[in-house]
Each structure stands twice: as structure tokens, then as C-alpha cells.
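Onboarding guide, step 5: your first structure request.
Type a short instruction followed by the sequence, for example:

Predict the 3D structure of this protein.
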Amino acid sequence: MIKQMISYLTNNPQVTQLVRNGQASLVGVTPVQQRTIVDTMSGGQLPGTENVRKTYWYYN
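The system replies with C-alpha cells like these:
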């Protein structure tokens, strides 16, 4: 279900902005999941992570 939400938000960025502004919400996810999805879709950064080193793992 989250995969479909992300796909929808990718195709409808205005909805991401509505959710971010509190004018809409994502049904079926927790508030933490919603915040994470919206922050990720809008290119935002989670509060408190400004000075955290970012590490990406790649497994082949």
C-alpha cells in the first residue's frame, strides 16, 4: 500500500504539499510513516538530522 501511495504522490506532487501543510492526510499509515513519506517526497530533511552523516549501503 505504501508503494502505491508513493507512486501516487510522485505523479501528484500537489497532494504532497497538501499533506505537508496539514490540509490532507494519508490514510492507512501511522503519523510517523506519513511524516517520513512526505519529507522524502518533498526533498525535506527530518528534524534533528542536520548534522548526521549520511551513509548509504549497497548490496549486490
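Each response can be followed by summary notes, for example: The chain has a mean pLDDT of 79.
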